[in-house]
Design goal:
Structural class: alpha/beta
Oligomer: single chain
Strand order of the largest sheet: 2-3-1-4-8
Function: Catalyzes the reversible transfer of the terminal phosphate group between ATP and AMP. Plays an important role in cellular energy homeostasis and in adenine nucleotide metabolism.
Enzyme class: transferase
Mean pLDDT: 89
Low-confidence stretches: none
Order of helices and strands: EHEHHHEHEHEEEHHEH
Shape: globular
Protein name: Adenylate kinase
Main location: cytoplasm
Helix content: 40-55%
Distance between the termini: 9 Å
Pathway: Purine metabolism; AMP biosynthesis via salvage pathway; AMP from ADP: step 1/1
């Protein structure tokens, strides 16, 4: 099965992508993970991407598309994949469609995780990341009274892209660049909206229910 997951930042795409991909035994392909790995590794791509990511802007299409095309060409993605974080705009979606057509295939479904903007701001601006183990804690959802990681004793900090002003900017970018994907894929007749509020397990159940008719 070939799936794209869309939704605003903070909708839980990364979490749901992991569960769905595992359930279907297909690779989860996340541009966000690839970008962060390059940033932490100090690669040239990471240096290029970081200046955009820190502002909440999108990494240029040419960088993103080349990376995704290579990844989709790997053996483990031959029989299916789940894309998380790509495409982010209509031109990328059109390019993805052309790439898949070259390989005589197409997307099966696009899942849109639907959540309101106030909830997005609360989810993201409350996140704190451990500087040692990388675990993410939340000031509202976790019982934290200090800025120390309970797992390893590391210091908790707020990532630049989780600061409220950056989150608001990311939502503005999403509305302008990414939200039109909803109409694009609705016109392709492969879009299904999923309520992304509530417990993670409930959101996963809704997603898997939507996918069930497509499972072989």
């Amino acid at each position: 099965m070939r799936i794209v997951l869309v939704g605003p930042p903070g909708a839980g795409k990364g979490t749901q992508a992991q569960f769905i991909a595992s359930h279907l035994s297909i690779p989860k392909i996340s541009t966000g993970d690839i970008f962060r790995a390059n940033v932490s590794g100090g690669t040239e791509l990471g240096r290029q991407a970081k200046q955009y990511m820190d502002r909440g802007d999108l990494v240029p299409d040419e960088v993103t598309i080349a990376m995704v095309r290579d990844r989709l060409g790997e053996d483990d993605a031959r029989d299916g994949f789940l894309l998380d974080g790509f495409p982010r705009n209509v031109p990328q979606a059109e390019t993805l469609k052309k790439i898949l057509a070259e390989w005589d295939t197409r997307l099966d479904i696009v899942l849109e995780l639907v959540v309101d903007e106030d909830e997005v701001v609360r989810r993201l601006s409350g996140r704190r990341t451990c500087d040692k183990c990388g675990r993410i804690w939340h000031v509202d959802f976790d019982d934290k009274q200090d800025d120390i990681c309970d797992d390893c004793g590391g210091h908790l900090f707020q990532r630049d892209d989780d600061k409220e002003e950056v989150v608001m900017h990311r939502l503005e970018v999403y509305r302008h660049d990414t939200a039109p994907l909803v109409q694009f894929y609705a016109d392709e007749d492969i879009l299904v909206g999923i309520d992304a509020t509530g417990p993670v397990e409930e959101v996963t159940k809704r997603a898997l229910t939507a996918l069930r008719p497509l499972e072989r």
